[in-house]
Amino acid sequence: MSIPYFTELFTDLPIQLRKLVAKIESHADLRIEVEVSDQQTMACEFGKRTARILIPDTGPPRGASVFHELLHLKRYFVDGVPKLIYCDDEHEFEDDDDARTPRLFARLDNQIEHLFIVPRELARYRSERRYWEARMGALLTDPMLPDDGALVAWEFVHRVLKSGVLSDAAQAQVHQRGLGDACDRFHQAVEESKEAATLCLFETFAPAKLPRACLDYFDQPHEIPLASMKRPAI
Fold first, then answer.
1. Which of 25, 171, 197, 205 is the most buried (most CB within 10 A)?
2. Are 45 and 52 in contact (CB under 8 A)?
3. CA-based angle 224:228:230, to the nearest 5?
């Protein structure tokens, strides 16, 4: 069966999105594939030699959703931003919790990317602000929200949504958890780079997992250990 490619499946994409697809495919020397999934929202999967956008089977995708996923791919394939991955080594998982680590890394990478991608999405599709406010609002009231999730949510509210209606809820979460200093460090790290932000989260919340974390750059033949980004103490 032939592989469905993005621009062939969706021939009525706006010209600016078609140009973005062409830029990514040309720079990466690959075609963006499409796969229909049972997920409720769009998503993308990518690595050095593959790029795939997952489309819900509920109908044609919205332009804002397409733009969002293409920005993920552009940052990796064109802008040279690394993807956080589980280091490919001979480490054996100790238990089920340890075995979930690669998926947790992928989720964390996506959350960090949103700090950089969603501002661009909202600049073009302003109506999407309501979607992100609803999504962050639900997250901030989730009783299972972990400390690192609260920290990233706080940064998202202040950096992406420019405070707004969720400012008090985000501030209450970090205050209750005693994360004020961690918020300051993380905010400064995000301003510096994605690499610095990722390292900050690991050093703050999961130092034991730092040896398992690597950065995958499109133009590098091998993954780079995240710990190698640490600056020498002065």
1. 197
2. yes
3. 140
Q: Are residues 57 and 86 in the same domain?
A: no
Helix axes 101-124, 147-159, angle to 10 degrees: 10
Cα–Cα distance, 23 to 30 (Å, whole number):
11
| pTM recorded for the entire structure | 0.91
Residue 234 lies in a domain: no
H helix or E strand, kind and range, residue 162: none
Q: Give the whole-angstrom CA distance, residue 35 versus residue 178.
A: 43
Question: What is the tally of structural domains in the chain?
Answer: 2
Q: DSSP for 197-220?
A: HHHHHHHHH-GGGGGGEEEE-TT-
Which residue is associated with the tokens 């690595």?
47
Report d(CA 20, CA 125) in Å as an integer. 16
Distance, in Å, from the CA atom of 66 to the CA atom of 13, rounded to the nearest integer, reads 9
DSSP string computed for 3-21: PPBHHHH-TT--HHHHHHH
Number of neighbouring beta carbons within 10 Å of residue 40: 8
pLDDT tens per residue across all 234 residues of the chain: 345 676 666 677 888 998 999 999 999 999 999 888 888 888 999 988 899 998 888 777 788 999 999 999 999 999 999 999 998 666 677 777 777 888 999 999 999 999 999 999 999 999 999 999 999 999 999 999 999 999 999 999 999 999 788 999 999 999 999 999 999 999 999 999 999 999 999 999 999 999 999 999 998 888 999 999 876 554
Chain centroid to CA 161: how far? 16
Place of tokens 């959350």: 111
Spatial distance between the Cα atoms of 230 and 195, rounded to a whole number of angstroms: 10
